[in-house]
Design brief:
The chain is an alpha+beta fold and 274 residues long. Helices cover 41% and strands 21% of the residues. It has nine helices and twelve strands. It has helices at 5-23, 34-43, 100-112, 144-149, 157-173, 218-226, 229-236, 242-266, 268-271; strands at 45-51, 60-66, 69-76, 79-85, 94-99, 121-123, 132-135, 140-143, 184-187, 192-194, 216-217, 272-273. The chain has a five-stranded antiparallel sheet, sandwiched between helices. The protein has a three-stranded antiparallel sheet with strand order 8-9-10, sandwiched between helices. It has a two-stranded antiparallel sheet with strand order 4-5. Helix 3 crosses helix 7 and helix 7 packs across helix 8. It starts with a helix and ends with a strand.
Length: 274
């Protein structure tokens, strides 16, 4: 029986959450830096691998060991063409892919913008195939879809809403066509961890859906303004094509312009937050 995408992710992340405390005993993964997590995923020995049925990307859970430290990662090797993207108003279709490369690119861009919300990713071959390994998110309470179903109110509603506003801006920037409530993981400190960006990034330079852009953090707006073509290429050039990087920069320009116009029309306090 095929599992739904949401059920798959519940099993995938829930299975590890149930056993992570025992396996990680004595290792403080919360204190790991991004560099340490990347080093672990690049150098650790794969102890076991388990595929959990999924009809599209078929990610695999890896249990990995480096020295005394044991942790899990998710691996994706998908890299295939999707149907073309057609922007509103018509026009020529724009090629799209479902690719592991975009998981790594989303992580690198997230850090370039100082968001720190996307789970760490590295490029590492798996069974002879180029692949992306993603750090397994520790301390997950539930997915956003389950929080809504259970009607659980965050302890700081304002902060939680601000996080979600940042996510919508980021998804427009990377033109993520596959964001859903199951790949928003809510950790115990009520921080949202972002996973699964394999269906993002194409060459379209416009805003896909302006209705998603309601508010933006001052920090993110500042970092988007400061983003240069050189910095972007150094961060993601191994994973995005030149047209895809130009698409990021084009969307960035239009998103920044959109919020500048919103500030003029509605006032800064209604649009931006710290």
């Amino acid at each position: 029986m095929m599992t739904s995408r949401r059920q798959h992710l519940q099993i995938l992340f829930g299975a590890v959450a149930a056993g992570s405390a025992t396996r990680a005993e004595g290792t403080d993964f919360d204190a790991y830096t991004d560099a340490q997590k990347e080093n672990f995923m690049m150098k650790a020995t794969i102890v076991s691998a388990k595929e959990i049925g999924h009809g599209i990307t078929k990610p695999i859970r890896l249990e990995m060991r480096l020295g005394e430290a044991v942790h899990s990662s998710k691996v994706q090797s998908i890299d295939k063409a999707l149907s073309d993207f057609f922007p509103e108003g018509g026009g020529k279709g724009i090629p799209m892919k479902d690719s592991w490369h975009y998981n790594v690119a989303a992580y690198k861009l997230d850090r370039l913008l100082k968001m720190n919300m996307v789970t760490p990713e590295v490029a590492r071959p798996y069974q002879g195939k180029p692949s992306a390994l993603s750090w397994w998110v520790d301390g997950v309470q539930f997915e956003e879809v389950d929080r809504i179903k259970k009607n659980i109110t965050p302890p700081d509603v304002g902060d939680f809403d601000n996080q979600k506003a940042i996510i919508t801006v980021f998804d427009e920037l990377i033109i993520n066509i596959d964001r859903n409530l199951s790949n928003l993981l809510i950790t115990k400190p009520w921080k949202i961890a972002l996973i699964d960006h394999s269906r993002a990034f194409n060459a379209y330079p416009g805003i896909r859906n302006k209705a998603n852009l309601t508010r933006c953090s001052r920090s993110l707006l500042k970092e988007m303004r400061a983003l240069t073509a050189g910095a972007l290429k150094r961060a993601v050039g191994a994973h995005l094509t030149a047209p895809e990087m130009n698409g990021v920069l084009g969307r960035r320009d239009r998103i920044v312009e959109f919020f500048e116009q919103e500030v003029k029309a509605k006032g800064e306090q209604s649009v931006l937050f710290s």
